[in-house]
Design goal:
The chain has four helices and nine strands. The protein is an alpha+beta fold.
């Protein structure tokens, strides 16, 4: 009986882990505050991208901010960063099942970026 409980807890711990259930990338929709078109360079510690704006881009999850350096077609510039957050359910599951998020901390797969972000331009 004790072995069955240990096996069941192990299975639940593995299935609740963001490393197993989450894709490495998340979609982020980007647009300029003035509605114009343009281009942006995005990067975090895991990947770099060059994207057209407006668009939806698949971005690699990371525990650091997604930095952007953008220019609209009419010459306006925007730069800054989009903060990375944690999925609350994954954190609670990690604490409950005693893995404390160690694997997720290594892979960053429990991290998220906002699904949409408006880039302010001057």
């Amino acid at each position: 009986m004790k072995n069955i409980i240990i096996i069941l807890l192990s299975v639940f711990a593995l299935t609740s882990c963001g490393t197993i259930v989450n894709d490495p990338n998340v979609p982020v929709s980007l647009s300029f505050s003035d509605g114009s078109d343009g281009k942006c360079k995005l990067n975090n510690k895991r990947a770099s991208y060059s994207v057209n704006i407006p668009s939806t881009t698949m971005v690699r999850r990371s525990d650091d901010a997604l930095r952007f350096d953008c220019e609209s077609k009419n010459g306006k510039k925007g730069y800054g960063s989009i903060p990375s957050g944690m999925e609350g359910g994954k954190v609670a599951a990690s604490v409950f099942f005693f893995d404390l998020g160690i694997t997720d901390a290594i892979t960053d797969k429990s991290r998220i970026y906002p699904p949409s972000f408006v880039i302010p331009v001057n």
